[in-house]
Design brief:
- With about 200 residues, the chain is mainly beta.
- Helices cover about 10% and strands about 50% of the residues.
- It is built from 1 helix and 16 strands.
- The strands form 3 sheets. Strands 1, 2, 5, 6, 7 and 8 form a 6-stranded antiparallel beta sheet that branches.
- The longest helix has 23 residues, at about 180-200.
């Protein structure tokens, strides 16, 4: 939505209630102050549900302060599904053991230790001095706090070398096989990390 500078600005909110003719959302804040959008002003929003993201148009009907500061907004229209990563990704440093796969079999003398850089329910990124070609299949063993080791058949999808003068690579890895129990444990870990990061941001 337009900010005081005239440029488009983004704010976070959450849905508090839904009725047939309006939605109630938490009042967006900026620097601990409420965003004062004029009544009737049109704005664009984005919402994520069941790993799918949607953009929409709405307008402000009313503002309320009690019992909670909220906006009452018109029922969204011009709703469009947008493409985005299927899973939330968070920064996390976890120990990982990696073994190369050839025709589905682990090659015993190829085990490498590394550390994750970030992780999602669909893959992870590691920092390592070892370089595998894109397309290489790997068996990845990640030790998740509270869940224990998770063994995942995976594939190298992308490679970055952030500093050309150092042999450290960021390897993007996609999970090829994962059961729902393990995926659920990974997502729980991610949500816990998000909560920790938000709490640190409020301190």
């Amino acid at each position: 939505m337009p900010g005081r500078s005239g440029l488009v600005e983004q704010y976070r909110s959450r849905i508090e209630d839904i009725t047939e003719d309006h939605l109630v959302i938490a009042m967006p804040m900026t620097k601990s102050m409420p965003v004062m959008l004029p009544r009737g002003e049109v704005f664009f929003g984005r919402v994520v549900a069941n790993f799918a993201a949607f953009e929409f148009t709405s307008s402000l009907l009313a503002r309320q302060i009690q019992p909670l500061p909220v906006w009452v907004i018109a029922v969204p229209y011009n709703i469009k599904k947008i493409q985005q990563r299927a899973f939330v990704r968070v920064d996390a440093a976890l120990p990982v053991q990696i073994t190369e796969l050839v025709e589905g079999e682990e090659i015993a003398d190829t085990k490498v230790s590394a550390v994750t850089k970030d992780i999602s329910g669909g893959g992870l990124q590691i920092a390592t001095s070892h370089l595998w070609p894109i397309g290489t299949e790997l068996m990845v063993n990640v030790d998740f706090p509270g869940a224990g080791p998770v063994l995942l058949r995976s594939k190298v999808m992308r490679i970055q070398q952030p500093q050309p003068d150092r042999t450290i690579f960021w390897i993007g890895i996609k999970f090829l096989e994962i059961n729902e129990k393990d995926r659920g444990n990974i997502i729980k870990f991610i949500f816990k990390k998000q909560l920790e990061q938000r709490r640190k941001g409020l301190e």
